[in-house]
Design brief:
Elements (H helix, E strand, L loop, with lengths): L1 H43 L1 H6 L14 H18 L9 H24 L1 H4 L7 H9 L5 H12 L2 H11 L5 H27 L5 H26 L13 H12 L5 H31 L8 H12 L9 H19 L10 E5 L10 E4 L10 E5 L7 H10 L2 H11 L4 H10 L4 H4 L3 H17 L7 H26 L4 H11 L4 H13 L6 H20 L5 H10 L5 H11 L1
Parallel strand pairs: 1-3
Antiparallel strand pairs: 2-3
Helix pairs in contact: 1-3, 3-4, 4-11, 6-9, 8-10, 9-10, 12-13, 12-20, 14-16, 16-19, 19-20, 19-23, 20-23, 21-22, 23-25
């Protein structure tokens, strides 16, 4: 018996060594494939390459015509064949995630072209402003070199917009208006930024004349496209609503959740009820402080709304909105370090800036982080401008982003939210997890980080801070309910505004902005709550598994170490390895 056990142990050891060797060999081959795959990817999507810091193809502007779509389809189908030569079971856990990400990207690309066909009904897909602005604004190379790339790229702008005109068949009115607004914003890149950059260079008059001539032609092409959209006869416009079938498919490709659309919808409704209960408790606690002996309104929601409206008058001055954001970031960094929540890299710059014109019309605040090829790039915190707003609209906006909410916004967008997560993501061993990043994990981490900060005492556990945090968290919850309801349940504008203003306690300006956003985007609004829900469920399971050995810092850093991967794959690794 003893000899048998020794033999069995030896056999198991030999099997494990053989399996490990086979996995190592498979990983080497798969790593070679990934490197070749990314090189082929950037040839197909040169502007995407530029946006993440791969500058080999900066001078190329792809013309979005039928021939290019056929080229994309050929690429995706050939890559799927190459990918399927690998056995998923033979790969390491990290490479299994990369396999899933590549597979999902390729299948999603085919679905986008053959089924969704946004290139026909979404004119806002066509906008050259961002790609040109990126090359102008990022100091990754001498200005003269970047200007030369732009000069070459400008040549295709007229053909780019002519192809766009051919593609557009039955646009939704909402996307038509967004395209006009964003392309009007893009004009400043060429009418101002490019010209200002040219003035910094010592060019011969002849060469400068050529640069201006090509730029003028590009400006004319953009204006021609805007005029085309303004004059477009759209007697039977497509609905902006995706419908249940397309929505479910897009959700599966973009979110890559372990849960279905319906499961996430039900979880969001349950979270909304929980938040309302907690908010009413805090409202009852705070009522004497703000209202003395005045009786509370008859319903829970009306009482909560009264309390939030009262607290929300505490806000920054209109002229100081951006500067207040800049002032708050050092305090957030200090708190994270003092509480030892996770490591912050002090060498990664973060800059607050006014939101560029070509980004207008979707979100009021966002993070633009450097890509995985830009190890020393600048992360930009984009802040929407209040310039030109009426006093009433600006006051509504400032009450929405009041003294307390503004701090939570900065946690979400910057520390330890998007900015920190994307710094970690760019350090992940595989570039695939950065370039094929999962939006639900990225947004989910930002939403999770808000709760984590308050759980650890940020805001000194003031009931006002918790109340306004719950209100902010309702935003993510109601984003999901709104998006699913509008695109799959035919929810009306009145019903949407009731959800946002009376159940999520948002100011009118914010609610109107969200109604606009849900018309011109789809699925992305569900990423916040879905990612948050999956991360908090994972943390609960991880904490239970680790027992007395559980440490929040370890969880946070291990979670972030896998890059911007779908949470369901990170879950599998974390719960199996610890």
């Amino acid at each position: 018996m003893k000899e048998f056990m020794l033999l069995l142990t030896a056999c198991i050891g030999y099997f494990n060594m053989t399996f490990a060797a086979a996995t190592a060999k498979a990983d080497v081959n798969f790593d070679m494939y990934k490197k070749a795959f990314t090189e082929r990817l950037w040839k197909i999507y040169p502007e995407w390459a530029s946006s993440i810091g791969y500058h080999k193809y900066d001078a190329i502007l792809v013309i979005p015509n039928k021939a290019n779509r056929e080229k994309e389809l050929l690429f995706t189908k050939e890559e799927l064949k190459r990918l399927n030569h690998f056995s998923l079971d033979s790969l390491s856990d990290l490479n299994k995630i990369d396999f899933h990400l590549i597979d999902n990207f390729l299948k999603s690309s085919i679905w986008q072209i053959n089924t969704l066909k946004g290139y026909e009904w979404n004119p806002s897909m066509y906008n050259v402003g961002e790609s040109f602005a990126y090359i102008l604004n990022e100091n990754y190379a001498p200005l003269s070199k970047r200007i030369n790339s732009i000069y070459s790229k400008l040549k295709n702008v007229p053909a780019y917009y002519e192809a766009a005109k051919v593609n557009i068949k039955n646009p939704s009115n909402e996307h038509l208006q967004l395209a006009i607004q964003q392309n009007e914003g893009a004009l400043s890149v060429f009418e101002n930024d490019f010209i200002d950059s040219l003035k910094e260079l010592s060019l011969t008059p002849e060469l400068k004349k050529e640069y201006f001539k090509r730029n003028d032609t590009a400006i004319a092409a953009i204006k021609s496209y805007i005029k085309f959209l303004q004059d477009f006869k759209n007697e039977h416009p497509r609905s902006f609503r995706l419908g249940s079938e397309l929505y479910a498919e897009k959700f599966n490709y973009e979110i890559q959740s372990q849960y279905s659309v319906q499961e996430i919808y039900e979880a969001a409704e349950k979270r909304k009820d929980y938040l309302h209960t907690e908010m009413f408790k805090l409202t009852t606690q705070l009522w004497p402080k703000y209202f003395g002996n005045t009786p509370m309104p008859p319903t829970q929601l009306s009482a909560i709304k009264r309390m939030i409206d009262t607290i929300s008058v505490q806000h920054v001055e209109r002229a100081n909105f951006q500067t207040e954001i800049e002032k708050q970031l050092p305090a957030l960094i200090k708190f994270v370090r003092e509480k030892n929540l996770l490591y912050l890299d002090p060498n990664k710059p973060l800059k607050v800036r006014k939101e560029p014109g070509y980004m207008a019309g979707v979100a009021g605040a966002s993070m633009s982080s450097p890509g995985p090829y830009e190890k020393n790039g600048i992360a930009y915190y984009n802040v929407g401008s209040l310039a030109g707003w009426s006093d009433e609209k600006a006051e509504s906006y400032l009450r929405e982003y009041n003294k307390y909410v503004l701090q939570i916004l900065n946690i979400h967008e910057a520390i330890p939210g998007h900015y920190v997560q994307l710094v970690y993501s760019n350090k992940a061993p595989s570039i695939i997890k950065s370039i094929l990043s999962n939006g639900a994990m990225i947004e989910g981490w930002a939403v999770y980080s808000e709760l984590m900060m308050l759980e650890n005492g940020y805001g000194n556990n003031e009931p006002e801070m918790w109340l306004l945090y719950y209100k902010w968290n309702l935003r993510s919850v109601c984003n999901t309910i709104l998006d699913i309801s509008v695109h799959t349940k035919n929810e009306s504008k009145d019903e949407a505004l009731d959800l946002l203003m009376n159940q999520a306690f948002q100011q009118k300006t914010e609610a109107e902005g969200k109604w606009h956003r849900v018309q011109v985007t789809s699925v992305q609004l569900t990423s916040y709550f879905t990612g948050f829900y999956e991360i908090t469920k994972l943390r609960e399971a991880y904490k239970k598994k680790m027992g007395n050995a559980y440490k929040l810092k370890n969880f946070n850093e291990q979670f972030l170490s896998y890059g911007s991967s779908p949470v369901k794959y990170i879950r599998q690794i974390l719960l199996s390895k610890n």
